[in-house]
Design brief:
By secondary structure, the chain is an alpha/beta fold. Helix content is about 50%, strand content about 15%. The chain has a single domain, classed as P-loop containing nucleotide triphosphate hydrolases (Rossmann fold). A five-stranded parallel sheet has the order 2-8-1-9-10, sandwiched between helices. It has a three-stranded antiparallel sheet with strand order 5-6-7, covered by helices on one side. A two-stranded antiparallel sheet has the order 3-4. The structure holds cytidine-5'-diphosphate.
């Protein structure tokens, strides 16, 4: 595989995109980025700075702050650094999950990250997962995949993940968050979640991550 290859994985919340993106990154020795973690990082920042007043976002304050925001995704550990602080755990908190789709629907936020993501791919290629990667960020990606899975399966997986992280949440809360995020992500005006026409669709409901991985490698090798 030559350098500067871009592999895009889009799809619904908690379908296994980041896990598989990481596996592909290792297999092909290409850097990986979980683009959702950057949207989560901006959401955390807005929360910590008090930009939400009674749950209403002060967009002007966020807009002014964006320029000074330093987000770094550590490819080795998959960790996210916000102005040098490791926020990998904090960005998974429910207060972030509850607001991230509203932040991600803002055109100014998407523009801000679009340039960063494109820049990251320019040196060594990229395996990247998100919602609009194959449609908007890298419409010319070499390989495009779109992950789906049954809602209950996704909620169960995410619930187990959060429990393992020590988070105090319920299955219903997780399920509701996935429903709301999918709805906002699919219906927003800027870069909505949708399958690119030339993406391979994979339903991961009944597959282990090894089975999905084998499927991806087969599709990549066959192209
Ligand atoms: O929970 P999950 O890992 O599936 O989601 P995520 O990848 O952490 O993304 C969190 C949120 O960021 C999504 O629900 C979207 O609102 C937003 N997002 C986006 O709008 N575009 C992307 N390319 C990636 C994430």
């Amino acid at each position: 595989m030559n350098s500067r290859i871009v592999i895009a994985i889009d799809g619904y919340a908690s379908t296994g995109k980041s896990t598989l993106a990481k596996m592909l990154s290792r297999q092909y020795q290409i850097p990986f980025i979980d683009s959702g973690s950057l949207y989560r990082g901006i959401t955390l920042y807005a929360l910590e700075k008090g930009f939400f007043k009674d749950d209403k976002l002060d967009q002007e304050a966020l807009s002014e702050a964006l320029g000074g925001l330093n987000l770094r995704f550590d490819n080795e550990t998959g960790g996210l650094y916000l102005n040098a602080e490791n926020v990998s755990q904090k960005i998974r908190l429910p207060q972030v999950s509850d607001r991230v789709s509203n932040i991600a629907a803002l055109t100014m936020v998407r523009e801000f990250l679009l340039h960063q993501l494109r820049h990251m791919a320019s040196e060594n290629g990229l395996v990247i997962d998100g919602r609009d990667i194959g449609t908007v960020v890298f419409p010319n990606a070499d390989y495009k995949f779109f992950f789906t899975a049954r809602l209950e399966v996704r909620a169960r997986r995410r619930y187990e993940e959060l429990k393992a992280l020590g988070q105090n949440t319920t299955f219903e809360e997780v399920l509701n968050n996935l429903i709301v995020r999918d709805q906002i992500d699919s219906s927003r005006e800027t870069a909505p979640l949708r399958k690119a026409d030339d993406a391979f669709e994979i339903d991961t409901s009944k597959l282990t991550k090894e089975q999905v991985f084998a499927d991806l490698l087969e599709k990549i090798d066959a192209k």
